[in-house]
Design a protein that fits this description.
Blueprint: E1 2-5, E2 21-23, E3 33-42, E4 45-54, H1 58-76, H2 84-89, E5 96-98, H3 101-116, H4 126-131, H5 146-153, E6 169-171, H6 184-198, E7 204-208, E8 211-215, E9 224-229, E10 238-244, E11 247-253, E12 258-261, E13 264-267, E14 270-271, E15 276-277, E16 282-289, H7 292-316, E17 320-327, E18 330-335, H8 337-343
Helix pairs in contact: 1-6, 3-7, 6-7
Length: 346
């Protein structure tokens, strides 16, 4: 059976978690490993984990999974007023902030990608996220005024962040507003996967809001297979089917979250260089990577770069990426050699 995966929404609320639930065949003895599913809520979306384990271990594993995801929310959710990132965002200019190790790891990866894409990816994009109605400030029904947009853009710029990675120290230059929603969800997947592997759960498929990572196989020896949703297909058509083992997959799409104003549709995917929603031929980008954190952020960066620059960047970096592009009234796909190689393993 193939799990169908829509593109991630691109932002998350860090809403309080709810108790997870699990399902298992009644015929499986509590001490015998079997295929089980755990589910819960995190980051304003849902999470699910399919794993091979003894039923007697499920409650402990569920608590451990939820604890790792709750930690990500507590550190990196802009929707939580008492999170580490929210406290930094409202701190005065000149203040200095020691960051938790996990927050520092995600920020370092985000800044490295910002440098590598010359700002097409930018973790300081928060003022624009709020201004365009895709952040905690709430939705909007029209584009912002030119002057308001210019003021928000003055607060954006990854080069303003003088992050000392070795000491995990981040000064607040004044008005900086971090938004890690395009990378922290993938990091949450990695946190869960790494923890499960450390618990000797070597066969698992982890999903948080459309981002996935898998290891091992199902009890019958079959692979964990996921289908990449085809835009405009109503969920019934797949752009690709991939088998995951030691790989993560993330998709960034501009057709799931947006608002319409006048005759234009404004996507939730923003270009930090222009300060506006993207307006290019890219409908979605899917990236395969060993780490979901990287796949998550790269999918967003390649979407912002657009078809020509995005595909060129993916090829230069030997990334496994699939681009779904608008062409006329339909869609065409473009894949990198790395992605084709992964498809051949199915």
């Amino acid at each position: 059976m193939t799990q169908r995966v829509p593109p991630a929404m691109g932002s998350w609320t860090g809403a309080p978690s709810a108790p997870a639930v699990w399902s298992r065949p009644n015929s499986v003895a509590a001490a015998a490993p079997g295929l089980h599913t755990l589910r819960g809520l995190t980051m304003g979306t849902s999470w699910s984990v399919k794993l091979v384990a003894a039923a007697s271990q499920l409650q402990r594993l569920e608590r451990g999974i939820q604890a790792r995801l709750d930690e990500v929310v507590a550190q990196m959710s802009t929707w939580q007023a008492d999170s580490d990132i929210s406290r930094y965002n409202r701190a005065p200019a000149g203040s200095v902030h020691p960051l938790p190790a996990e927050f520092a790891q995600v920020l370092a990866a985000a800044l490295a990608l910002a440098a590598d894409t010359d700002g097409a990816y930018d973790p300081s994009i928060g003022p624009l996220t709020d201004l365009w109605g895709f952040g905690p400030a709430g939705a909007r029904a029209h584009a912002p005024a030119t002057q308001t947009l210019a003021q928000a853009r003055e607060r954006v710029g990854w080069r303003r962040l003088r992050f000392d990675a070795a000491q995990r120290i981040l000064p607040q230059p004044g008005g900086a507003y971090l938004d890690l929603s395009s990378i922290a969800k993938g990091y949450g997947v990695d946190r869960v996967a790494d923890w499960l592997l450390a618990q000797d759960v070597g066969d698992c498929l982890i999903e948080v809001g459309g981002e996935l990572r898998a290891h091992g196989r199902k009890p019958d020896g079959s692979q964990w297979r996921v289908a990449v949703e085809q835009p405009g297909g109503g969920g019934a058509e797949a752009a690709a089917v991939i088998a995951l083992d030691g790989l993560a997959i993330a998709t960034s799409g501009d057709y799931r979250r947006y608002f319409d104003a006048g005759e234009r549709r404004y996507s939730h995917t923003l270009d930090p260089r222009s300060g506006a929603p993207i307006d290019n031929a890219v409908a979605s980008v899917t990236v395969l990577h060993r780490h979901c954190m990287q796949a998550d952020a790269l999918a967003t960066a390649l979407t912002v770069l657009g078809a020509h620059a995005g595909i060129a960047h993916a090829n230069r970096r030997n990334l496994a990426a699939l681009f779904v592009l608008r062409e006329g009234d339909g869609f065409v796909t473009r894949t990198t050699p790395g992605f084709v190689a992964c498809q051949r393993a199915v």
